[in-house]
């Protein structure tokens, strides 16, 4: 049974890698989406602050870019760092699964953690791909247990942009809008 799950996990990881490469090499032409809009988005200067409105499902946290120079490779470095951290986590869980010193309960918990990480990887890739398909140059999603943070490369977002992006994140993750944070990142070229 353990061998069957391991094989399934390996197939899933290969699939995730193939989807990633397809999306990266085909860019924004890969997906076509219908236009969606949401209202009641509050733009917050500087740090995100949650201000819940009664019976209002659209409470998206949004942070505008600061006027400072950023490196062009921010998104590449951030994705590499995130992927390295996830790979280390998966490797640690695999060690638990393959080590006879650990109990069956610990091994099952490690398998569940690997599946959870794999689902988070898949959702983050989907969010990033759908945002690029909307015409934004790049994005990086960080999915946590109870929230999601998305950094978007842009020259500026208005309320309708924030609402559309929040809608994408909500549809992919199922998180409430108040658990979504969108961070605008402006990249200065030519450094």
Would you kindly provide a written description of the structure presented here, covering whatever features stand out?
The protein is α/β, with parallel strands linked by helices and 191 residues long. It has a single domain, classed as Stage III sporulation protein AH-like (Helix Hairpins, Orthogonal Bundle). The protein has four helices and four strands; from the N terminus they run H-E-H-H-E-E-H-E. It has helices spanning 2-26, 74-98, 104-133, 159-173, and strands at 61-63, 138-143, 148-153, 180-185. Strands 1-4-3-2 form a four-stranded mixed sheet, sandwiched between helices. Helix 1 packs parallel to helix 3, helix 2 packs antiparallel against helix 3 and helix 3 packs antiparallel against helix 4. It is elongated. The N and C termini lie far apart (53 Å). Residues 26-38 and 44-57 have low confidence and may be disordered.
């Amino acid at each position: 049974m353990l061998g069957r799950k391991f094989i399934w996990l390996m197939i899933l990881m290969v699939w995730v890698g193939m989807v990633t490469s397809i999306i990266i090499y085909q860019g924004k032409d890969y997906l076509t989406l219908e236009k969606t809009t949401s209202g009641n988005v509050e733009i917050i200067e500087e740090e995100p602050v949650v201000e819940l409105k009664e019976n209002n499902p659209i409470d998206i946290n949004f942070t505008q870019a600061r006027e400072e120079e950023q490196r062009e490779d921010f998104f590449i470095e951030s994705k590499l760092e995130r992927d390295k951290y996830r790979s280390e986590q998966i490797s640690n869980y695999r060690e638990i699964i393959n080590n006879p010193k650990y109990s069956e309960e610990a091994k099952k918990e490690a398998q569940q953690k690997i599946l959870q990480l794999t689902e988070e990887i898949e959702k983050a890739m989907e969010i990033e791909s759908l945002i690029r398909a909307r015409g934004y140059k790049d994005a990086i999603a960080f999915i946590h247990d109870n929230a999601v943070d998305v950094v978007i490369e842009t020259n500026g977002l208005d309320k309708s942009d924030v609402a559309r992006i929040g809608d994408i994140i909500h549809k992919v993750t199922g998180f409430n809008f108040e658990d979504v944070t969108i961070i605008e990142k402006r990249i200065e070229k030519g450094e």
